[in-house]
Specification:
By secondary structure, this protein is an alpha/beta fold. The chain folds into 2 domains: 76 residues, no CATH class; 151 residues, Zincin-like. Helices cover 36% and strands 27% of the residues. It is built from 6 helices and 12 strands. The protein is globular and about 60 Å long. InterPro entries: UTP_pyrophosphatase-like (IPR053136), YgjP-like_metallopeptidase (IPR002725). Pfam families: YgjP-like (PF01863). This is M48 family metallopeptidase.
Amino acid sequence: MRTIMAARSASEQIEICWGERRVVAELLRTERRSLRIDVRPTGEVAIFAPAGEEIDEIRSRACRKGAWIFAQIDTIAQRPKVTPKRRFISGETHLLLGRQYRLSIEQSDDPHVRLDGERLVVSARSTDDQAHCRRVLQVFYSLRAREVFRQRFDVVAEPFVRKGLKRPPLVIRPMSKRWGSFTPGGRVVLNVDLVRASPKLIDYVICHELAHAFHPDHGEGWRSLLDSVMPDWMSRKAELESSLR
């Protein structure tokens, strides 16, 4: 038996039940005309619903996705444990474009970052100031993200442009819970932290979001479009979610 209950609060929530299992999903109102359900890499569930849609209709539509939602949650639970929080000290390993580098903190009056073989060298004013080292490295990641993402965006967008899509603007910024999004205004937003992933996984996220220009939800039309443009998108998705936890 499948049931689903809803509760209203300042931030709306929906409790999704499938048999004896339950999960509380965050309900977010958007300007989109279609409903979308996301299971985040953390296992949290978010439902994006049109601003004017009745809660009973959202409940009914989300109910039909119960089996898929819990299958996604189970898949996430089986993945390796989340990487420990970074301390930004020498000896840590950090990812950049899918490769692991050993962090090396050096003192310098000219803060900057450079690659030296397998080392990611952070030159900082104080080697003991972890917050400062973190900021220096974040600036480096941000610059690399803007360079790489724009290059990959131009390549990945081509098949969609041939299908009639007007090339959308690209926005790169920090995002707390998502790798990317396609906004109601037609912009592609990418999480700057995605620069840790390999280029083929960056391509997947761009492709995922560009497909939403044609299909706002994750339904059959969206999946068919991804299959035609990137046949191995499902394996890339799984690799992304397991490698950047």
